[in-house]
Prior knowledge:
The complex is a heterodimer. Chain A has helices spanning 2-6, 10-19, 24-47, 52-63, 67-76, 80-84, 90-117, 129-153, 163-179, 186-199, 208-231, 234-256, 260-273. By secondary structure, chain A is an all-alpha fold.
Amino acid sequence: MRREENRAFLPALRRLERRLALPIPRRIRLLRELEWDLEEIRDDLEARGVAPEEARDRALEILLPGEASVLELTRLHRPFYRKVTRNLAHDRITLMERGALGLMTVVVLGVQVAALRHTETLGSPSPFLWVVLLWGTLLFLFLLAKAFQLWVKGDHGNPEQGLDALLGLVALTLTLAVVSRWRFGPYAFLWRHLLIPLVGPPGQTEAAAPHRFAKLIGATFTLGATPLVVIGGPFALAGYVLAGIVAVLAGLAATTGFCLGCRLYGQLAVARRLDLV
Amino acid sequence: MSRGDFDVQGFARDIHRLLVLSTLREEGKHGYQIAMDVEDDSNGLVQFRHGTLYPILHRLEGEGLIRGSWSKGRGRRKKVYSLTRPGRKYLQGESHRVRGIMSRLQNLLQMPEEVPS
């Protein structure tokens, strides 16, 4: 019962949440404090004989910060990063942040290539390893940038921005290879022109067909996930689930060598031989 | 207070701060309790509306005059504010200063006895 009553303040708190340009921990603390006070003041007013609807409206009128209070709170809790950069122009800050992210990407990818040169990554434990490492690095840097935006800067404007582009890029690289019937694919291109010259050819090769089948599944899932994430709202969750399945299976294949797509391909081949398919 | 350093807007803000501090004189309270107590104690003269209470509380907390601590109540976490030692000292000094200003304003506003025509 109490849980249902509490939901009465949720829409107002969500609206306020969007207006508070504060780092996530401070924002959560403020909203939590406010939620408790709103509930208590409503209960107190009801105990004094005020009708429930009126008690809720009066609680909101008393405690829910208006425009001036939101500005004052934002100023009071201004994050350290904002204080340090307050005298710099917005364009300059953006340029600085992008530069730092770009530099970090180059450094991390450089470290990764250096690591690849000293390990037998191409041969074992899985040919998926370098692909997963590459996307994992980009995803890690993306999440790092988002964490900085939300936790340090307190900038909550469209936090998912860019995730659809990253997912679209994964789908595009896989789909290009499928559509060109494996004649052109970014991974094959990188493999031949970057990785083999850098780390040398792998000691042993595997049949391409099962891996291609696994990539076909990956292309289908990511191609299905991208528009769902772009549409957003309730569809986004379905998109993230599809993308998550691909990420988990690719990670599993890269780290343990267990490739579900390849296994499925093998079973399909058995089914074909037995005339079941 | 020296001549000419009386700021009307600042005085209104100081009054709000003092009222909040004085409600915490006896015991720690949460935000809603403070808002209701200030309203009740002033017979409705001072009312916090549109969340104006929170910037005051958070500023006082930032200045170390009150301390906010989280505790559990009815299965939920609530923030309770209490007066710190510097806060108590500040309240004493400021109350004295405000009383002085009020008495001077009262003298200023005292109407001269009407002269019969």
